[in-house]
Amino acid sequence: MIAAARILAPGRGQVFPISQGMQYLHDMFGGTGKLDPLDNGRYPGLLWTGVREVLARR
């Protein structure tokens, strides 16, 4: 389907053509877009901010 979308609706000049969205969904649901393993140990001085704290600041 993605190959067909590239041919039938190439989206020249578009920032996000239809086929790119289809490819994104395919990769995310298929697991190929997974960032594994995470190597957070490389940044010992980095402090993570939780969602509640970010929203409370707004």
Report the helical percentage. 40-55%
- The whole-number mean of residue pLDDT values reads 88
Low-confidence parts, pLDDT < 50 over ≥5 residues? none
Sheet with most strands: none
Q: Structural class of the secondary elements?
A: mainly alpha
Number of helices: 3
- Quaternary state reads single chain
In short:
By secondary structure, the protein is an all-alpha fold. It has helices at about 1-10, 20-30, 50-55.
Describe the secondary structure blueprint for this structure.
Elements: H1 2-8, H2 18-30, H3 51-57
Structural overview:
It is a single chain. This protein is an all-alpha fold. It has helices at residues 2-8, 18-30, 51-57. The longest helix is centred in the middle third of the chain and has 13 residues, at 18-30. The chain is elongated, with a radius of gyration of 18 Å. The relative contact order is 0.10.
Key traits:
58 residues, mainly alpha, 3 helices, elongated
